Amino acid sequence: MSKTPDPNSTGADGNKSTREEATIKVPSKDPKKKDDKKDEDLSEEDLALKQQLELYVERVQDADPGLQKVALESMRQEIRTATSSMTSVPKPLKFLRPHYGTLKGYYEKMSDSDLKKLLADILSVLALTMSAEGERESLKYRLLGSQDDIGSWGHEYVRNLAGEISQEYVKRQSEEAPIDDLMELVQQIVAFHMKHNAEPEAVDLLMEVEDLDLLVEHVDSTNYKRTCSYLTSSAKYLPGPDDMLVLDIAYTIYMKFEEYPSALVTALYLDNTQYVKQVFTSCDDLLRKKQFCYILARHGQTFELDEEMCAEDEEREGLQEIINNTKLSEGYLTLARDIEVMEAKTPDDIYKPHLLDGRASAGASVDSARQNLASTFVNAFVNAGFGQDKLMSVPSEASSGGASTASTSWLFKNKEHGKASAAASLGMILLWDVDSGLAQIDKYFHSTDTHVIAGALLGVGIVNCGIKNECDPALALLAEYIDKEDPSIRIGAIMGLGLAYAGSQNEQIRSKLTPILGDSKASLDVLAFTAISLGLVYVGSCNEEIAQAIIFALMERSESELGEPFARLLPLGLGLLYLGKQESVEATAEVSKTFNEKIRKHCDMTLLSCAYAGTGNVLKVQHFLGQCAQHFEKGETFQGPAVLGIAMVAMAEDLGLEMAIRSLEHLLQYGEQNIRRVVPLALALLCISNPKVTVMDTLSRLSHDSDSEVAMAAIISLGLIGAGTNNARIAGMLRNLSSYYYKEANLLFCVRIAQGLVHLGKGLLTLSPYHSEHFLLSPTALAGLVTLLHACLDMKAIILGKYHYVLYFLTLAMQPRMLLTVDENLKPLSVPVRVGQAVDVVGQAGRPKTITGFQTHSTPVLLAAGDRAELATDKYIPLSPILEGFVILKENLDYRDDQ
């Protein structure tokens, strides 16, 4: 029976609800006629179904229980077997819609019996499409019903119930009503979801009813990975303390299924030493323990193994050596040889003066000591960790006599404090190679020039950065220089200790440095470096004694001193103690409100930004934006840390990061001048070693700003976002800037530094503090970056003054961006891997590809920002699910070579 469709009516599967609601709510003058018209549009089978269901509805209300039972059973059968397209309501539900009220009314009159429960089940399903918003009738009738298998009514029904349960739960919690019946339902729903690959929905429901522990019973070996990946990725979006709770559950699940590397990474995120120990004690495979040690070393975690974690002395020493990072230099140079970039580069290889037009090269009349200083840094950054360069290091064959003049002559092409940076640059070139580094720096200790000695002390700190050594050579060499008269020697030794022992919480250093803070005769710059170094050594430890010492030092200084740029680094040292520790900072923040008003707000912003760094806390970002929106007559310094705070908090996850970039664009348009000067630095932190095109364009525009401080910050930031990437576009921009600013010494100096950063380690290093697929944030790396950015808040006084060596704080964040696969004896092993852009597959169905647009290379390989690697062979099994840094490969015993 075909019929031309009436424009006012709907087809059998069409958009029925609008018209049918009208028929229920507004009785027309002649309802019969209208119903007939509607029935005419139905196909024969639909019409038959409709009449059938209407008959059931009548029979349900029959006096004879036998008839009622048959009618209810048939109705249930119809609803369960109804198939429909995903976009429309199943037909039985649609045809029963007008009778929902009738059935509800009849239900109330029925006496308690199994039939009444059966009707409740049916009403619960009908309520899926018919219940009024917020009534939660589906749940109400489900609880009154026969409690049969929940999944038999289909996914959509279970989903709807889950939604109603979470609303009901909130209501009952506020009334303090019992929730046992709800929790029974939750058990059933979670079991159903976990069996049907809907892990995210199970997790969401359990979060709503605050009972995540239930999850541990329901996961099995087929779905625990998907469940945990959903838990760990949702942690970034949850408010505290829920975020930690979620990760706790993930850790428990990983341990239950012996997925130890993932459990370890989660324990590091939670910053829970007990958990880290537990991973070591639960696992008895030495090879896997070695892999754990590589993960700890990459995170920069100082960790002492005890007998419980590894009984054999020899084995324990081997493991401790890996944690101490002693093999880092070796692995890095293996990568460099493989990519064939061992040859030393000169600053001119970076500046490429031949590509510029005549005027820039003619501009050599600019302060030549300043030019040489810039070249010192460029040379140090580019050849970082390679152990050889053409300005500073001595060719070994003539080490006794003739050739040492080369390095000495370059040293003395720098003026006064420039010599300190030059001597320290040797430490950067020999980065991570402690033995030969100390041997080569040793000659500068015999110098008569205090600046050279200061540089040598700092060089010792740089060489040891991130490497722990049993005999503590850095402490032995630097300790005796801490209390010397000369401030530059003191600063060299203090900063050296901060770099060498960052994150180690070394008691000896605390007892040596804390007294300096109480010394009223010590100059402000010595105090500032002491506070920063203590902050680095005890980063994120919330150590109260050091906090007190820094607070007293701030209280004792005169008002004029507190206005100095260096006074503002004292609150930063205080902030580093609470890096990422959220609420723990509150007591100290209260004390800071009693400080002199010159520094009070500045201290408050610095403490907050450090405490919530890397947490993605939206409320804190709003708070900082609010601080930046205020306009003052004279430029306030506290807005600087507030702008940096936005970046520090929002760098945790991609969504917040994109939004923060947009907010910073607004600050550029509407903020005061002092805010505009900091925005480039905040952008740099958000995209460090990850040159996003939009940010690159913004910084390029700002690098020509009429305000020289904005321009300088933008230029340094261009270097930071391109750090270690060899990005050709940024390199081109910086070359053009070098000829644009050829007459302005300060700006040219910044351009040179940025050029050195872009080619950091000849493109093999990264400054990003994130690792392990952007999951873990290394506190020491972040501390180094934040310290440099705070120093850049007043470029003229610090970096362009005589404290340019604060640039070496970046050493803390330098890491090879490599994947180096090693065999069971920890010797490099070349295997094919696919490297491509990482794809977020959390919560996706099936087994989606985790990388896209990949290329196949042989290890060792470089990983760019956002890259992920996977093995392209089944011959080996990696002992870590995250292929970054050092990964141990075990031979796959089931592998059969087809050839």
Which key phrases capture this entry?
3-stranded antiparallel sheet, mainly alpha, 45 helices, 4-stranded mixed sheet, 899 residues, elongated
Q: Brief description of this entry?
A:
This protein is mainly α and 899 residues long. It contains 45 helices and eleven strands.
Can you put this structure into words, describing what you see?
With 899 residues, the protein is mainly α. It has 45 helices and 11 strands. A 4-stranded mixed β-sheet has the order 8-5-11-10. A 3-stranded antiparallel β-sheet has the order 7-6-9, with no helix packed on it. It has a two-stranded antiparallel ribbon with strand order 1-4.
The tally of strands reads: 11
The poorly predicted ranges are 7-29, 396-403
What spatial form do the alpha-carbon principal axes imply?
A: elongated
Q: How are the strands ordered across the major sheet? A: 8-5-11-10
Termini, distance in Å? 65 Å
Structural class: mainly alpha
Number of helices: 45
Radius of gyration: 34 Å
Largest sheet: 4 strands, mixed
Question: How helical, in percent, are the residues?
Answer: 55-70%
Percent of residues in beta strands? 5-15%
**Average pLDDT reading:** 85
Summarize the SSE layout with pairings.
Blueprint: H1 17-25, H2 31-40, H3 44-60, H4 65-81, H5 91-96, H6 100-109, H7 114-130, H8 137-144, H9 155-175, H10 180-195, H11 199-208, H12 214-218, H13 224-234, H14 242-256, H15 260-270, H16 273-282, H17 286-299, H18 313-323, H19 328-339, H20 347-351, H21 358-362, H22 368-382, H23 404-411, H24 416-429, H25 434-441, H26 450-463, H27 473-478, H28 487-500, H29 507-517, H30 524-537, H31 544-556, H32 559-562, H33 569-577, H34 586-592, H35 597-611, H36 618-628, H37 639-650, H38 654-670, H39 673-676, H40 679-686, H41 693-702, H42 708-721, H43 728-740, H44 745-758, E1 765-766, E2 770-771, E3 776-777, H45 779-791, E4 815-816, E5 818-822, E6 832-838, E7 851-858, E8 861-862, E9 867-871, E10 876-878, E11 885-891
Parallel strand pairs: 5-11
Antiparallel strand pairs: 1-4, 2-3, 5-8, 6-7, 6-9, 10-11
Helix pairs in contact: 3-4, 4-7, 6-7, 7-8, 10-11, 13-14, 14-15, 15-16, 15-17, 17-18, 22-24, 22-44, 24-25, 24-26, 25-26, 26-28, 28-30, 29-30, 29-31, 30-33, 31-33, 33-35, 35-37, 36-37, 36-38, 37-38, 37-40, 38-40, 40-42, 41-42, 42-44, 43-44
